[in-house]
Design goal:
- This protein is α/β, with parallel strands linked by helices.
- It has two domains: 235 residues, Type I PLP-dependent aspartate aminotransferase-like (Major domain) (Aspartate Aminotransferase, domain 2, 3-Layer(aba) Sandwich), CATH 3.40.640.10; 119 residues, Aspartate Aminotransferase, domain 1.
- Helix content is 39%, strand content 14%.
- It has twelve helices and 14 strands.
- The protein has a seven-stranded mixed β-sheet with strand order 1-9-8-5-4-2-3, with helices on both faces. The protein has a three-stranded antiparallel β-sheet with strand order 7-6-12, with no helix packed on it.
- Helix 3 packs across helix 7 and helix 9 packs parallel to helix 12.
Length: 364
């Protein structure tokens, strides 16, 4: 039995008629960059996140960069983030001229608020907690620390759209949050796309200018900006798919429950914390002999991934920061044990049972 990690062709087959209608409407309207299609999607996204504003941009990395620039963070400043994320969570800090500073993570792979004090310096200006795998960080503790030390909190919610923590949505906890709509995400575009959400009107106004060259009008530049605009066709695709996001997350949560029941006592499976509804962009187990297990699953037709095998602080650009192996032992230990199983909404129960059976066979 084959168990693919993703199923783009299956998604397109189910959505083709609606997507083609949305794209045709956009093309016939003649607004290809920003425009009404983007504005409509932004309104729906803001409502989903419990925010006043959403701003479509080219990708999730740009979203982080634009927020940092809009907050005036740059050379001489430091921003705290997690070392076990995709590299963009840290590269955005370096790209504005600031210094990334890392803190270790808890067993659930999320930023450990208890470690923030150790990373704090007089140069610290912000914290970027990463809602990894579709789980929302302990934002109550992170926000309390940030308020005490007058720091901005910017949510990297690239993997967590639709997730809830005590009734609040990912994207509603910080001064601003970012989303990625990369094809692998739960809400996915047909290419790169991203967004910023915020309830701060001044910040929204500045990012609206920053994403479009700093243009106040077609011929008037307020300040130097970027070319990071959301294309209308991508907005049309995202708006069409946003209607089904609840069903996508519900299906992924059902798949997660099947894995948990079948793999109990075999490997460590992620669990929802009390009062939380995780979105399950990824279903990451932690297992002994990870590489051998991954090879065994591949031999049995099961595609898997590792997110991420090399922590950010051990990547080449971080050598200039003085980072060394052993700096963040929990993150490093997890990097040798984590394995992402297929979790997408098109999996059949028989495929999940095949994955479970294959894992049990390996450990027997």
């Amino acid at each position: 039995m084959k168990v693919p990690y993703v199923d783009f062709s299956g998604q397109y087959a189910l959505e083709k008629r609606k997507l083609m209608a949305a794209i045709d409407k956009t093309l016939s309207g003649g607004e290809y960059i920003l425009g009404r299609q983007v504005e409509d999607f932004e309104k729906e996204l803001a409502a989903l996140c419990g925010a006043k504003y959403a701003l479509g941009v080219a990708n999730g990395t740009d979203a982080l960069v634009l927020i940092l620039k809009a907050l005036g963070i740059g050379p001489g400043d430091e921003v705290i983030t997690a070392p076990n994320s995709f590299v963009a969570s840290a590269s955005c800090i370096a790209l504005v001229g600031a210094r990334p500073v890392f803190v270790d993570v808890k067993d659930n792979q999320l930023m450990d608020p208890a470690k923030l004090a150790k990373a704090l310096t007089p140069r610290t200006k912000a914290i970027i907690p990463v809602h990894l795998t579709g789980k929302i960080c302990d934002m109550e503790a992170i926000n309390a620390f940030a308020r005490k030390h007058k720091l901005h909190v910017i949510e990297d919610a690239a993997q967590a759209i639709g997730a809830l923590r005590h009734g609040k949505a990912a994207g509603s906890f910080g001064i601003a949050a970012t989303f990625s709509f990369h094809p692998l995400k739960n809400l996915n575009a047909a290419g790169d796309a991203g967004a910023v959400v915020t309830s701060d009107p001044a910040l929204a106004d500045k990012i609206r200018l920053l994403r479009n060259h700093g243009l106040k009008s077609r011929n008037e530049v307020v300040f130097w900006g970027y070319n990071s605009r959301l294309d209308s066709i991508q907005a049309a695709i995202l708006q069409s798919r946003l209607k089904n996001l609840d069903k996508v997350i519900a299906a992924r949560r059902r798949n997660a429950d099947l894995y948990r029941k079948g793999l109990s006592g075999v490997v460590d499976c992620p669990k929802d914390e009390r009062g939380c509804q995780d979105a399950y962009h990824l279903f990451v187990i932690q297992a002994d002999r990870r590489d051998a297990l991954q090879a065994h699953l591949q031999e049995n037709g099961v595609s898997t991934g590792v997110h991420y095998p090399v922590p950010i602080h051990l990547q080449a650009p971080c050598k200039t920061l003085g980072c060394r192996e052993g700096d963040f032992p929990d993150c490093e230990r997890q990097s040798l044990r984590i394995l992402s199983l297929p979790i997408h909404q098109y999996l059949k129960p028989a495929q999940i049972q095949h994955v479970i059976k294959s894992i049990k066979e390996f450990y027997r």
